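Checklist before submission:
- one chain only
- standard amino acids only
- sequence pasted in full

Submission:
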Amino acid sequence: MTAQAYEALSRGLAEAVLSHDDLIGLVLLGSASEEARERRDEWSDHDFFAVIAEGHGTELRPDLRWLPEQHRIVLTAREGEIGFVAVYDDGHVFEFALAEAAELSDALAAEATVVVDDEALTTTGLVERARHRALAADVFDPVNDARLVLVKLLIGVGRVRRGERLNGGAFIRQWAVNHLVRAVRGRLADSSTTLRDVNDPVRRFERDHPEWGERVASALAQPEEDAALALFRLLRELEPGWEAFPTRAADVVAVRLGWR
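Returned file contents:
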């Protein structure tokens, strides 16, 4: 998608919200926001909050006809109660929450641009609180994450050996990786940059830790158990000089899985 087409959809969203009686706010998030626009590329989606007037959420959510350029939408789907996606005919994606302000009381936001708001500044207040929550939540506990890597690998390999490759693979490729990334970010905190996504530590991990990112990706390209062993070895590279590392637990996992 060209920069001009992207901006046109952003304007279309704002106009759609402004013209809808039951929509009172629009927040563009991540690379859709003004403060992160330099990160946009051909794969950038539109992430946003569309804020519904109080008391109208239930009746409004089933109807997405307010989205811009309706004739180009090839797919819409719902993710949970307030989450939605829409795909356009060029493959561009809208990923958004369609909710009343109170329903976004636990939302987190880093880069965010308020495009539409009501007279009470409901959406501005929502974003300010979401930013504060994101900052408060932006803390890593690498010791706990290292422990959880071991747990996820132990469970995942056990299930793979039982024949449950799909479920076991999820423990290895998703949960163990997520905690390993968090452990690396927490242990090597000085290497993280402002590119880091406070909502998802795996996002742009390769930009902050290119060598680690490449090695984790290489591990995941292997079959389930080989991938698990490679991730285990990567975790243990954090061990030297780290007194709080769960060494005894790592040894127990290695013995239990026959990795020693």
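Reviewer check: The radius of gyration is 22 Å.
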